[in-house]
Amino acid sequence: MKPRALAVSVGLGIVVAGHAGAAPVKRKAVDILGDFAMVGNTFAHNCGDKAPVVGTVTSCTDTFTDASPDVYWQAEATTATAGPLVTPAASRTTAMLSMPSGARVEYATLYWFGTAAAADKDCTFERPGGPSTSVTADSSYQGVASNPAAVKPANKTLTQFLSGADVTDFVAAQGSGAYRVSGVDGPALDDNHGAAERGWALVVFYEAPGAAPHNLVLFEGIDGILGGTVSVPLSGFKVPTVFSGKLGIVGIDGEVAGASLRFGVPPLGAGNLLSDALNPSTFFFNGTRSWLGQPVSVAGDLPQASGQAGSFGGIDMDVVDVTAQLKAGQTSAEAQISAGPGDGIINFIWVTSVTTLAPVLTAAKKVKDENGGAVVPGDILEYSVTVTNKGNDPSADTVFEDTLSSGLEFVAGSLKVSSGSATTTLTDATGDDAGEYTGASKKLVVRLGTGASATQGGSVAPSESVTVTFRAKVAAGTEGTTLANQAAVTAKGQSGAAAATIQSDDPDKTGITSTDVTVASGTDGGSGGAPSGGSGGGAGAAGSGATAGTGGGSSTGGSSTGGSSSGGSGGSAGGGASDSGDDGGCGCRTAPVSSGAAGALAALAALAALSRRRRGTTER
């Protein structure tokens, strides 16, 4: 294989024969009862690569005997084809995502990378034969790939890029199965390319039943090296007293013996060299796709690579065991990439996964309309938020906060906290117990758990739940609006896990979402206030052929708090019903009636319906 010249620039710094890069950006960090999955595929095939398990290379001529790909792949329903007739624009490949049964997607990022005339910030992400979405990068990194051996002037200087986008909602909705990526720019491969590797990766953080707590951190960026060594700082994780650890990496372009990866606490030495059955310590970057020393070759990937060295289009997608390189209490590490003589290596993605001793809090939030029926101004909503520790360490300094929207008015004296069979009503004032409501900011604060006080949050043990309930009145003028509410819970671990904040979740919706209530555009006849108009006050007038109601009745006739009318139209003398009265809490309406017995029957039916309605509640 020919060595190549490579220059990589990041920001304004350009390095022509050495290394370039910056500390990778920490994109996401979570403590979760689960782990991560990392899948993806190459867009291109090198004539010197191992043949795929599934996929056909129609023709492949390496005119320049370079070490970069020579033809593009195009995936179809059950196979994939590579050859000179497949253009960069037509290139697309498929990979299978597999998660444990019952897994819930917490976070997912799609990455695409390669060389092109300019950084490509758009692609198409789809389920083959199913939903498809156009994806625009929310992060992008680029460098300059210098290729003086290229015959075509346009290929002598290209842009090396990495683009990423949050695809959590799409993956959460679709779950495990086949995903395909297309629409990623790239050069024609009929030239002497130094680094034309091109591919994609999907990194998913998921929660799974029965899984151990893991601290997961995702880093991204461009770290390039030519025939030397580059150090990459990684921080933000937490190693407990008993642990295991994994490191996931995605990079390109390592083809020469001498490529190595070290990991651990600096200064790094021979004991920090990473290796396994597929990734030797002296040739770690070797075009493999592996998981803990085993080749990854998945039925449904198109093309389906063998996972062995030299099978993945010049891309390395590996997950390795780093338990021996970690120490209890560690919160940062250094990765050190070394390239073989004249070889260039570019790494894009890092994932750390460490089993951890930490609380893992969830907050499930529901709302109940105490008045029943459609929600209207004046209704009383009861919110309940159940905070549960699903981790393996008690929480400490646990604090619940909830700021009400402008469309909600807190009901004084309604704040309660429950644990087991015990329920405590908290005052609204500050400083006398574990909770308070501040009217100026519309903010509720409750310090939760054992030992909670007026100044400090307490501890919630593993498997323990604590529930906060409060009531709020729907404000006037909110008709036709949606009232969103989402609480936050902050806590640290009793054994040292750093403080983290989680948002409450509506368990009836996908993802971590607010709990929403939509206020009806009109009136629904709910109890708790008049839909319009004033109090009826006196007796309703008799409708035609009917007896008038007496005492505090609604001027709409039929029903009242103090009495009832057997007539059907108390508001008018003929048979038409008025809709503007107030029964002191009923807010009911009656249908028009004509006269006599028909009016009496209609009134009785309305009363029966109202009775049924008042016994019901609405859950959201």
**What would you call the shape?**
elongated
Number of strands: 39
Q: What does the radius of gyration come to?
A: 33 Å
Biggest β-sheet description:
12 strands, mixed
What percent of residues adopt helix (DSSP H or I)? Answer: under 10%
SSE diagram, text form:
Elements lengths: L7 E3 L2 E3 L3 E3 L3 E18 L1 E2 L10 E2 L13 E5 L4 E4 L8 E6 L6 E13 L5 E5 L5 E5 L2 E8 L10 E10 L1 H7 L2 E6 L16 E9 L5 E14 L2 E7 L9 E8 L7 E5 L24 E3 L2 E2 L19 E7 L10 E7 L5 E12 L5 E9 L10 E10 L5 E9 L4 E3 L5 E4 L2 E4 L9 E4 L4 E5 L17 E10 L7 E4 L2 E6 L6 E4 L11 E4 L77 H20 L2 E2 L1
Parallel strand pairs: 6-8, 21-23
Antiparallel strand pairs: 1-2, 3-17, 4-16, 4-17, 5-7, 7-8, 9-15, 10-14, 10-16, 11-12, 11-15, 13-14, 17-25, 18-24, 19-23, 19-25, 20-24, 21-22, 26-27, 26-39, 27-34, 28-33, 28-36, 29-34, 30-31, 30-34, 32-33, 35-38, 36-37
Keywords:
620 residues; twelve-stranded mixed sheet; seven-stranded antiparallel sheet; 2 helices
Describe this protein's structure.
This protein folds into 3 domains: 8-355, no CATH class; 361-518, Immunoglobulin-like; 529-620, no CATH class. Helix content is 4%, strand content 40%. It is built from 2 helices and 39 strands. The strands form 8 sheets. Strands 3, 4, 10, 13, 14, 16, 17, 19, 21, 22, 23 and 25 form a 12-stranded mixed beta sheet that branches. The model is unreliable at 1-21 and 524-620 (pLDDT under 50).
